[in-house]
Fold this sequence. Notes:
The chain is α/β, with parallel strands linked by helices. 40% of the residues lie in helices and 12% in strands. The protein has a single domain (5-202, 233-274), classed as NAD(P)-binding Rossmann-like Domain (Rossmann fold, 3-Layer(aba) Sandwich), CATH 3.40.50. It has nine helices and seven strands; from the N terminus they run E-H-E-H-E-H-E-H-E-H-E-H-H-E-H-H. The two termini are 28 Å apart. Pfam families: adh_short (PF00106).
Amino acid sequence: xxxxxALVAGATRGAGRAMAVELGAAGATVxxxxxxxxxxxxxxxxxxxxxxxxxxxxxxGGTGIAVPTDHLEREQVKALVERIDREQGRLxxxxxxxWGGDHLIEFDTKVWEVDLDKGLRMLRLSVETHAITSHYALxxxxxxxxxxxxxxxxxxxxFNKTYRDNLFFxxxxxAPIRMAFGLAKELAEYGGTAVSVTPGFLRSEEMLDHxxxxxxxxxxxxxxxxxxxxAESPRFLGRGVASLxxxxxxxxxxGKSVSSGELAKVYDFDDADGSRPDCFAYFADVVFGGKVASxxxxx
Length: 299
């Protein structure tokens, strides 16, 4: 990825941060965006910042550039893309990872009973942000053939056939899959690729805090939640996206929905601990299929 330029929209923490860092480790210049900076926190209320992410990208061997951006604000996104064009003259990878809606979810609540403002905010964060960013960024990306758009979501197309227990959340997590499908059609004549990717059971900073563990002690949480045994670090998806971005035959994935575990099988990489978790196979076989097996058999 040396000489290549990536934009990871929504890179403050979790999978977004990991994808940015792994793209940097592969040699890319990575613009990282988000709303939480050292001077200001977003509505999510987490302490991680885009400046930290940019520093991690640079420490990994790339060039990290933090640009505070609210991807619902068109002028901010337009200015961001104009800056990338002015400073780099190219864009090779766009990762649409903006979300920040976990605190809005009311699971097992009917659509007529949910807080409508929360539901609509989820859709704005997960769908409108991605559409706005693609609108402004893709004219720069298609200048050269081989560009890649990565739509990040939660769940593969197959997994999301199961209802996600909140109408707005269900829509929010299915929309990026369809966006990748549509963008693949629109980018084809320019030699571009669009793919929807998902982590498995992600050990994000927020999830670790939820269970009261750290990345070093995450297995302690299995006693509270047995299926957490299949959990993966954000780096796993990060390595998958970096491998995908560097693949000269990436077009074979265009329009598809793929998980970190599936990418690992094709590109032969492991998670940070040396294991190779296949979360969706585990859920299909064990959680939903009734197979008697341990999570370790799927690592």
